[in-house]
């Protein structure tokens, strides 16, 4: 999907579909990187329409979902790094 394809979607239904497809990639690290780059370009590109009433809440919700996923990943890494590696696990 290209940026031109995304920006040609103008109704709230079309935006909802596009944003749902992007949201579906958040739990897949490699796909999420690509999707986040696409989202970033969508919001910052001079050649694309910016926020509109049809996409505002969906784009904000999508950015929030990326932030939550990133926070969870950082928490997981932080907890893993604090776990002592030389202490045997008991059952």
Main attributes?
mainly alpha, single chain, 91 residues
What report would you give on this structure?
The protein has one domain. The protein is built from four helices and no strands. It has helices spanning 3-7, 12-23, 29-44, 56-82. α2 runs parallel beside α4.
Record the SSE blueprint.
Elements: H1 3-7, H2 12-23, H3 29-44, H4 56-82
DSSP strand count: 0
Q: In whole angstroms, how far apart are the ends?
A: 49 Å
Q: What structural class do helix, strand and pairing data support?
A: mainly alpha
Q: Which blocks of ≥5 consecutive residues have pLDDT under 50?
A: none
Number of domains: 1
Q: How are helices and strands ordered from N to C?
A: HHHH
- The DSSP helix count reads 4
Helix fraction, binned, reads 55-70%
Relative strand content: under 5%
Task: Give a short summary of the structure.
The chain has 91 residues and is an all-alpha fold. Helix content is 66%, strand content 0%.
